[in-house]
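Field guide to reading this record: the first block holds the primary sequence, the second block holds the structure written as discrete tokens, and the final block holds curator observations. Each block starts with its own label. This record concerns Sec-independent protein translocase protein TatA, catalogued under organism Corynebacterium hiratae.

BLOCK 1 — SEQUENCE
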Amino acid sequence: MTVGPLEIGLVVLVIVLLFGAKKLPELARSMGRSMRIFKSEVKEMKEENNTSEQQGQIAGSKQSDEDFWNSPEMQPRTSKPADGNQN
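BLOCK 2 — STRUCTURE
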């Protein structure tokens, strides 16, 4: 089954009727922004991945999740009373 010009025209007509001609440019702009953000994030992730591989990091040398959450920096802080009196 092929999609011909009639089917494409019907789909476009339904979209225009559902969203209205006034909202379509706004919708297209927001989708364009979203795609640009997505592409930049994917590119950034690839660059981070390449950088970490180039530095020769070994998976075993990375800190495990359990070690991270058990580290002193991640533990709740105990606060002392402001006036120094313990009632």
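BLOCK 3 — OBSERVATIONS
Residues 24-54 form the longest helix (31 residues).
Residues 21-51 form one domain.
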